[in-house]
Structure formats: structure tokens, C-alpha cells
Design goal:
Distance between the termini: 5 Å
Strand order of the largest sheet: 1-4
Order of helices and strands: EHHHEEHHHHHHHHHE
Structural class: mainly alpha
Strand content: under 5%
Shape: globular
Largest sheet: 2 strands, antiparallel
Radius of gyration: 20 Å
Helix content: 55-70%
Number of strands: 4
Number of domains: 1
Length: 363
């Protein structure tokens, strides 16, 4: 029997702590770069603080919202329709860094791919819960959810944004698994998908080079391997306790993107192994509380919503850290709540808002 409870306080405290720590580290990682590019060392900090305020408002609003009201075809399909329209529209905006990922209006920019993560979790939760008695059947059971995942991933893929497309596939695979799809079907899907993934990697020279550099970054230390090598130098030079706040050397134009994709390297250099482990422990707490919320959800829809958003946040965090320490190939996924990026921050805080909403209606 479901009862009205307080939101999960541990999850709320961890999220606020991560966002606050993220603002502090963003200033440390970006001050020199911001002053060089924008003549203000506070440029990125002020922008991120404004987005954090928006994200907090969204999170608190969703916390007070009853997630069960979303379980309506007009809401789910309406959200998916808007997401698809934005993912198509972004292709007609001028590219930035050879990719059509941002819809820009003056000084403001928006990444529809972040909205795609939210829409995919809600859409899959609705479709899988509706078909829970038919998931043993391919055509009428899990083909529609699979097609939904493939559509959103494809639209993100052609931007191109391979990292986010992989993240969408990862979320979709996790939800298919926990919803009860047969392991034999999932294994068959993996076998069929493997040649497609291999073709995507080998079809473009820069992706093929990125994989080869991951296997041996020192084969091209001043070219393709420069980024990961500088990241490893930053993490390694931090030692156990780190060099101290604001004392990172690699962020001084050695480490590319120190305030976004590789901000964990700056954290490792300034706070050392101990600081990095504490941050990972915070993400583990987030993973733990998310899975507890999913297990205690009052209905299947809420359980899948909580699982999807937990995998979105925890998976992206561990992938980013894995890239930074050289155990995964370089991707463009930001570190949740920490990396610079307004759309990503708001999307992550919205995901926590949904988790807090589910936590209030538990068994």
C-alpha cells in the first residue's frame, strides 16, 4: 500500500552538495581560461550559478509534483513529439565545433539532446509498464520501446553526438533489462548491434584514431593522445591529498576543457586520491538512493522512472570518470552536477526532482 512520505532527504542533501561543490570547482577550473577568453575570471561561474538556480527551481517543482499524473498518453507522446521536433530543428542551426548540437538564441543556448534523456526515460517507463504482460513477445512487447530508443539515439547520432547517443542506448538497455525482457532476446539484440557499433567506430577516421589512441595514448603524445595524457598527469600529480584548492597546474592551458569534460582531472590534482574517492562515494550514494526509491515505488511506472533516471545520472558520472583516468575511450559526456553546461545541469537536477517525487509515494 502506497503512503505519502517525505522526499528522500539523503538524495536531496547529496544533490545540493554536488551542485555546490561543482560551482566551487568550476571557478577553480575555469578562472584562468575565462579571464583569457572573456576578460572576467567569474564568467563561467556566474553562468553556471544562474543555471543552478533554474535547476533548483525545476527540481523543487518536480518534487512537489505527483509523477503519476505523467502516466497519460497525451503527456508522454506530447513530450516525445516536442523532443523529436527539437532534435530535427537543431540540425538546421549553424554548427558549433562541427556539430549541430545547440539551438542558440543570442547569448542563450540549449541542447535538445539533454531533453531527449528525460523524454526517453519517461517514454520507456510508460511503454514498458503498459506492455508488462507482453514483454516475452518481440513484436507487440518490446519492439515499440526499442524503436523509440533507436529513433532518439539516431537523431542525436546525426548531430553528430556519439557520446549522448550511447548514453541513450545505455538507458534504454537498462530499462529493458529491469522490466523483464528475456535475456535471450537481449543477448540476440547485442549480437545484432555489435557490427553496427563496429561500423560506426571504423567508418570515420577520427573515431578510429580515438580508439587507437585510447589503447596507446603515447603513440601520439602531441596530437590525439595529448588530451588524455594531460588528464593522467593532472590526476597523477595530485597524489593522495592533492596540491590544494586553486593550485592545479594542468588547468593553465595544458589540459583541454578543464572546466567541462575533464573537470574531474582538476579535482584529482587539487584534492588528490582522497578527494576523488569522496566524490565517487557521493555518486555511489546517489546510485544507492535511486535504486532504493525504484524498489519501493508504488507502481511499475514509478519504479521504471526511478531506475531510468538513476542509471542516467550514475552511468554518466562513472563514464566521465573512466574517461578521465584513461580506462574508457574519450567521450564528450559531462560530469553530472559538476561540469560546465547549463542544459546538462538543469536536466540532471530535473532527474533528481523526478526521483524525489517517486520517493514520496512509496510502499
Amino acid at each position: 500500500m502506497a503512503v505519502k512520505l517525505y522526499p528522500d532527504r539523503t538524495l536531496f542533501v547529496v544533490t545540493v552538495g554536488l551542485v555546490s561543490f561543482g560551482l566551487v570547482m568550476l571557478y577553480s577550473a575555469s578562472a584562468v581560461v575565462a579571464h583569457d577568453a572573456h576578460r572576467s575570471s567569474h564568467f563561467f561561474l556566474v553562468k553556471q550559478a544562474m543555471w543552478a538556480a533554474c535547476g533548483l527551481l525545476v527540481m523543487l517543482t518536480l518534487t512537489r509534483f505527483d509523477y503519476r499524473k505523467l502516466k497519460h498518453p497525451a503527456v508522454i507522446y506530447g513530450l516525445l513529439g516536442v523532443t523529436v521536433a527539437l532534435l530535427v530543428a537543431v540540425l538546421f542551426f549553424p554548427p558549433l565545433k562541427n556539430a549541430h548540437r545547440w539551438i542558440r538564441f543570442g547569448m542563450l543556448s540549449f541542447q535538445p539532446s539533454e531533453l531527449a534523456k528525460i523524454s526517453l526515460v519517461l517514454g520507456l517507463a510508460y511503454e514498458l509498464e503498459k506492455r508488462r504482460d507482453r514483454l516475452h513477445d518481440f513484436v507487440s512487447g518490446w519492439l515499440p520501446p526499442l524503436a523509440l530508443t533507436g529513433l532518439l539515439a539516431f537523431l542525436v547520432l546525426i548531430e553528430p553526438d556519439y557520446s549522448t547517443a550511447f548514453c541513450l542506448v545505455f538507458i534504454g538497455g537498462c530499462l529493458l533489462f529491469v522490466s523483464g525482457v528475456r535475456m535471450a532476446h537481449l543477448a540476440g539484440l547485442a549480437v545484432v548491434s555489435a557490427p553496427v557499433l563496429l561500423w560506426l567506430i571504423l567508418s570515420e577516421g577520427y573515431r578510429r584514431e580515438r580508439l587507437l589512441v585510447f589503447l596507446d595514448p603515447f603513440s601520439d603524445p602531441l596530437g590525439k593522445g595529448f588530451q588524455i595524457i594531460q588528464s593522467l598527469i593532472a590526476v597523477g600529480s595530485g597524489g593522495v591529498l592533492g596540491s590544494g584548492f586553486m593550485r592545479s597546474q594542468q588547468k593553465l592551458f595544458y589540459l583541454p576543457e578543464p572546466h567541462s569534460d575533464f573537470i574531474f582531472a582538476v579535482i584529482g590534482e587539487e584534492f588528490g586520491l582522497l578527494g576523488g574517492l569522496c566524490l565517487l562515494a557521493a555518486y555511489c550514494v546517489l546510485l544507492w538512493r535511486g535504486l532504493v526509491i525504484a524498489a519501493r515505488a508504488s507502481d511499475g511506472f514509478g519504479s521504471l522512472v526511478a531506475t531510468g533516471f538513476t542509471m542516467f545520472l550514475a552511468g554518466q558520472a562513472f563514464i566521465n570518470v573512466g574517461v578521465t583516468v584513461g580506462v574508457l575511450p574519450t567521450t564528450g559526456l559531462p560530469l553530472p552536477f559538476i561540469s560546465s553546461g547549463g542544459t546538462s545541469l538543469v536536466a540532471c537536477m530535473a532527474a533528481v526532482g523526478f526521483l524525489l517525487s517517486v520517493s514520496q509515494h512509496a510502499r
